What we know:
Oligomer: single chain
Shape: globular
Strand order of the largest sheet: 4-5-10-6-7
Structural class: alpha+beta
Low-confidence stretches: none
Amino acid sequence: MYQTTYHRASSVDEAASLFAKGTEAKYLAGGHTLLPVMKQRLASPSDVIDLAKIKELIGIEVSADAVTIKAATTHYDVANSADVKKAIPALADLASLIGDPAVRHRGTIGGSLANNDPAADYPAAVLALGATIKTNKRSIAADNYFKGLFSTALEDGEIITAVSFPIPVKAGYAKFPHPASRFALTGVFVAKTKSGDIRAAATGASENGVMRVGAIEAALKANWAASALDSVSIPATGLISDIHGAADYRAHLIKVMAQRAVAAAG
C-alpha cells in the first residue's frame, strides 16, 4: 500500500475536521472495500479516518413508528437484535445473509450504504422501506439517495450517522447469493407500508444499481400473494449480463426472489 496517515476519530465532528484537513482523505467503516483497493494500489488516500469506534454512531433505537440504526452498527448486531427482529424481522434476516461471520462482525450499515455496491443487500431494504439516511449535515430520503453504481447523494466529506426505517405492516427479503462472495446475484425486498403503499426493490440485477420494480409493486398492490406474481414479466433491458448470469436470467430471478420474499413476509 502507499503511505497513509491513520486516524481514529472519537466524534463525528472530529472526523469531519480531519477529513477537511487531508488532501485526499477517506473514511473507514468496516474496511471491506477501502482496504482491498488500497492493497491493490487503486486508492492512495493521504489520510484514513476510522469511524468504527465513535460511540454516537453505534446502536439501535426503536420507536412506535421506526427502527433507527446508527451508522457504525455492525451487520451482526442488526441480525441479532431482538428489537429489530420484533419490529422488522425482514431487516434482521437480511443482515444475517450478508457475507460470512467475519464480514458480519466487522461490516457496518453506514459503510455499506456509503459504498453503494450494486450487489449489496442493505440498499434493497432502504429503498423498499422508504428509509431516511441521516448524515452530519442533513436527512436524505431513500428515493433521492441512490444515484447509480457506487454513486450516492453524499457530498464530499459528508458522514452517514444513522438510517431510519419506517416500520411496515409486512416485509420480506430473498436473494440468490453468489456462492463465493455471498453478494446478491439478485435480491428483492418487498414491503407493505402502514399507509397501504407497496414498495419492491431489487439489488444485484440492474446496471444502474438498486432499483424499484414497478411491475412487482403493481401486482402486489392488487393482491398481496406470491401467486399474484405468476403472470408478471420483468424485462431484461438494463439488467446486468456477466459471467455469473445473463440479463434474462436476472430478470427471471427478480420475479422468483420477489415471490419468495412475499412468502417470507406472510
